[in-house]
Design brief:
alpha+beta; 14 helices; 5-stranded antiparallel beta sheet
């Protein structure tokens, strides 16, 4: 079957909970999305607000304090907000990404017994959560002849480290402190399955190619996994002739389904999870959103596609949402963005003396 860019766009929006706000729990949403990239502390909170009905910004903090969700490095070797269950299931599958990172710089650690370093660091971090600075200082004391920064980097690659609260709680401040996943959640017997990982990706991002799932996960050689799953999947051909795979029961709305305006936060997986991102953003606009130093700017959607960028500024108690369109915004969508922006400001910064939405020239 053939499929086009707009059809893929509406399928993606439906899977990403962006065609309508959903009435499900925060935990259910995070698991449906297979985690949310959390390279910065605040974006996941906004990503949940834009997807869920009646979402309160303190809900994630409560779940983190209860150790039901947490922040840990997973897909693509990047920090994600995931459920405790997914942390245990996905971390073993994605460890190979960090192992490969480590291999690229093994020459700088020549002669170092990394197993000994990791074991020593595990005991240190399980005794008490530590900051990166504290970890480097202790490593420098233990291995004075080695590069402490490199040793700390190797520890982060070798050990499954959790960023403990209050880091990641909306409105909280403080530098990141780490302990191990096992110490945070207790002993567990994970049941990792790469087949399940691919199926869950399709449920949240499909239809998609093998290259797409590899882009999202950071894993390689997934063609053989998809081939193994193929009897239980449906296939499509995109406009460039590439084969796309999908779950038979997954939603694929009519391409003319109306798509409301949406504010998408920085680093959202919506923009990061396909090798070919044409279903959500043009290449011209991608170059403006993705910076050379790895920042993925916050964007807004008009008719389902990225139409510009936005940011919130707080000065003297005033919260202002500034919208920077790439192209002129039709008047009905402009009004919708103003209304949605005011709702976001009221939810994110209820303490502000005033709220305003401002469009760049």
């Amino acid at each position: 079957m053939k499929t086009d860019r707009r059809t893929l766009n509406r399928a993606l929006l439906a899977r990403q909970m962006l065609l309508k706000r959903h009435s499900m729990s925060v935990l259910e949403a995070i698991e449906h999305l297979v985690g949310m990239q959390a390279q910065a502390p605040n974006p996941p909170h906004i990503g949940l607000w834009t997807r869920l009905a009646d979402h309160a910004f303190d809900e994630v903090g409560e779940l983190m304090t209860e150790r039901r969700v947490l922040r840990i490095v997973l897909m693509r070797g990047t920090l994600h907000l995931v459920s405790a269950r997914d942390a245990l299931a996905l971390r073993p599958l994605t460890q190979v990404i960090l192992d490969n990172h480590l291999k690229t710089r093994m020459g700088e650690l020549d002669g170092v017994d990394l197993a000994e370093v990791a074991a020593w660091a595990r005991a240190l971090l399980e005794d008490e959560p530590r900051t990166d600075k504290e970890l480097r200082a202790r490593l420098a004391e233990r291995w004075p002849d080695e590069d402490a920064a490199m040793l700390a980097w190797a520890v982060r690659c070798r050990l499954p480290l959790v960023q403990v609260p209050p880091r990641g709680i909306w409105g909280a401040s403080g530098i990141a402190r780490h302990t191990t996943l096992e110490n945070w959640l207790g002993p567990a017997v994970p049941d990792p399955s790469v087949d399940d990982l691919v199926r869950r990706y399709l449920g949240a991002f499909g239809p998609a190619s093998v290259q797409d799932v590899q882009q999202w996960s950071g894993l390689t050689r997934l063609g053989e996994v998809v081939e193994r799953l193929r009897p239980g999947l449906v296939t499509f051909q995109d406009e460039k002739g590439r084969t796309l795979y999908d779950l038979p029961e997954a939603p694929r709305p009519d391409p003319d389904t109306p798509a409301p305006v949406r504010f998408v936060p920085d680093f959202d997986n919506l923009l990061l999870s396909h090798a070919d991102r044409a279903r959500i953003i043009t290449e011209e606009h991608r170059k403006r959103v993705f910076t050379v130093n790895g920042i993925i700017r916050a964007t807004f959607l008009v008719d389902g596609f990225v139409h510009g960028m936005w940011k919130i500024e707080k000065k003297r108690g005033e919260a202002t949402l500034r919208i920077d369109p790439f192209d002129p915004v039709p008047e009905p969508d402009r009004t919708a963005l103003e209304e949605e922006g005011m709702r976001l400001l009221a939810a994110a910064h209820p303490e502000a003396k005033s709220h305003a939405v401002v469009f760049a020239p």
